[in-house]
Amino acid sequence: MNEAVHGYIGFLLHAHLPYVRQEIDSASLEERWFYEAVTESYLPLMEMMDRLLKEQIPYHLTLSVSPPCSP
């Protein structure tokens, strides 16, 4: 079969990160969660998008950001 198959795939990255800044503890659990999310999710996602741009592969990105609630 020589016909090209076209399709779409979508990924949704969603997380609930609590308020990060803690006056009492400089290395709180919430702050570690934030840095973990950045290094293990957001930076790899940005690197993947950079590779797609370099390979001239079209893509779309939808990003939803909501403010955290303060404690």
TrEMBL record:
User: From which domain of life does this come?
Assistant: Bacteria
Give TM segment ranges: none
User: Which spans of this chain does the record mark as coiled coil?
Assistant: none
Name of this protein: Glycoside hydrolase family 57 N-terminal domain-containing protein
- Species name: Paenibacillus hexagrammi
